[in-house]
Amino acid sequence: MKVMLYIYVFIFCACIGSFANVLIYRLPKGENFIIGRSYCPKCHHTLKMSEMIPIFSWILLKGRCRWCRQKISIAYFIIEVISVGIGYFCFSYHGFGSGFFISFFICELLLVVSVIDLITMTIPDSLNIILAFLAIIAYCLHPDISLIERLIGMSVISLLMIVLNLFVMDSFGGGDIKLMIAAGFLLGWQKTLVAGVLGIMSASVYASYLLVKKKANRKTHIPFGPFLSLGIMISFFYGWQFIDMYLMLVKV
To answer: Is residue 83 part of a domain?
Structure first.
């Protein structure tokens, strides 16, 4: 039975990963991601079902389109593999139930947010709305964090970002602020603080690396969404552990 569950999780998560690729490719272009068959981004030939098997099609086709023989970005393959990895992590953490599905969809959405922000330096409003919707579902299914804590969480980091924008123009994009508003309702104010700190710290490390390597200067803008998403994901699963560690250090 457990083996069957692992197989099901693999198939389900790989398929969602394939859909994540559709979102990543079509959302920034304003294309409809609900209807319309998948196609080769180079020759625009409509793909057959045998060419759309998550993970395996890319391997069998050796990373090339069957029709025009142009290279298919390995990013498609990587997104699907990461999706399966996220799925197995959520499965091992929650078991097979509502916790698995809600946590997987949240993490998968944050993965899409991260990749789109890396490519376009923007976070579509539709993705933040979906995250807010998933946060409401999470609250209904697992109301362990009170409603008032969640409402406070919506402003604890986002309000700080707005204030910083008043002093340093374009410190954070509107998509980043909306992302933390939705994440605030998902996590509650305590875990949102953890997510914000982790996001800022990881972004600072990356920015410092770029400065040292002279790949950027102090005026260079970097996509903040991937780092905020990383902080949100870590805090979603381990936020209370980080808070406990901090309180222990403070007592010492």
So the answer is: no
Query: Does the predicted model carry a pTM greater than 0.90?
Result: yes
Name the residue range of residue 240's domain.
140-252
Query: CA 23 to CA 10: how far, in whole Å?
Result: 20
| Structure tokens belonging to residue 50 | 């045998």
Per-residue pLDDT of the chain (252 residues; tens, 9 = 90+): 678 899 999 999 999 999 999 999 889 888 777 777 777 777 877 878 877 888 998 888 888 888 788 888 899 999 999 999 999 999 999 998 999 999 999 999 999 999 999 999 999 999 999 999 999 999 998 888 999 999 999 999 999 999 988 887 777 889 999 999 999 999 999 999 999 999 999 999 998 888 888 777 777 788 999 999 999 999 999 999 999 998 888 775
Total structural domains within the chain: 1
DSSP 220: -
Q: Per the domain annotation, does 56 fall within a domain?
A: no
Sequence-separated (6 or more) residues with CB below 8 Å from residue 116: 23, 24, 27, 28, 122, 123, 124, 127, 225
Q: How far apart are CA 189 and CA 187, in angstroms?
A: 7
Residue at 78 is within a domain: no
> What is the DSSP secondary structure assignment for residue 51, as one 8-state letter?
G
